[in-house]
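Lecture 7 notes: from sequence to structure.

We start with a single chain of 302 residues. Read the sequence below before looking at the structure.
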Amino acid sequence: MSVFDESGAVAHVSPGRSTDVAVVPPVGPPGEGMRRFVGPGVVFALFVGFWYFTHHVLMSDARKFLVPPPHHVLNDAFFTWDIPRGTGGSRTGGGLSRNLEGLWSSTQVAALGLLIAILIGLALATAMSQAKWVENAFYPFLVALQAMPILAFVPLIGALFGFDFWSRVLVCIMIALFPIVANTLFGLISVERGYHELMNLHGASRWTKLRKLQYPAAMPSIFTGLQISAGLSVVGAVVGDFFFRQGEPGIGRLINTYQNSNETEQMYGAVIMSALLGIAVFLGFGILGRRVVSHWHETRNA
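Now the structure, written as tokens:
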């Protein structure tokens, strides 16, 4: 005999033996895993096809160098380890080794900026959820910080902190802070009132409710904010690298250098590397979030 348990799994029960139960996990529709990759694969193929179409059809012969074909970009930026400086006219040097060095520099800036933004954002959102006056005091300025273009702060940051590593980190913090605060605050204050009243009946303190009720309930929102801020921190590292041009060059500075020397293949390769870094950190926090909350929080799997 077969029955269904609460999770939808099939339980096979042998007649006459109530304890002989074998639970079979539910099986999704055939080809469900493949469908997750078909859509992105088709869109990627269309993108590459449009790239080739732009190079061969839309660009004139005199302007084809502005949009090099994808295989040239892959060869110069990913499959060539080192291009000596001065090779090919005005080349400043490049290849995979130099791009990886720039990517590592930007990764350090983005990671440190994101870590500091997480610590500040979680602490600030927690305080705002516990005291309305704290929210009223800080939230308008956080919105203003998010709304103002970061380029407006560049001269001030440079004058106060210089133009090296820590200025780039500060740019990452400023860009990544708001989504963490906004999503964490939303999760903390969105717990149903009935749960608060139930814990009040048991004499729970404010700290106990925060630790055992609000933060667990807010985890999905927190990880959504972390995903957004992780991608934004990479943007901040690249943007900061464009303008704070001291210290070890990052991927943004390489993009600017390649652009000035008309090394379009290297420039496109550096842009792709920065995009891959942003995708990697976004997916990383998504995987971490699913591991943390998937055992108790319902998510949409369709």
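Residues 55 and 61 are 9 Å apart (CA to CA). Keep this in mind for problem set 3.
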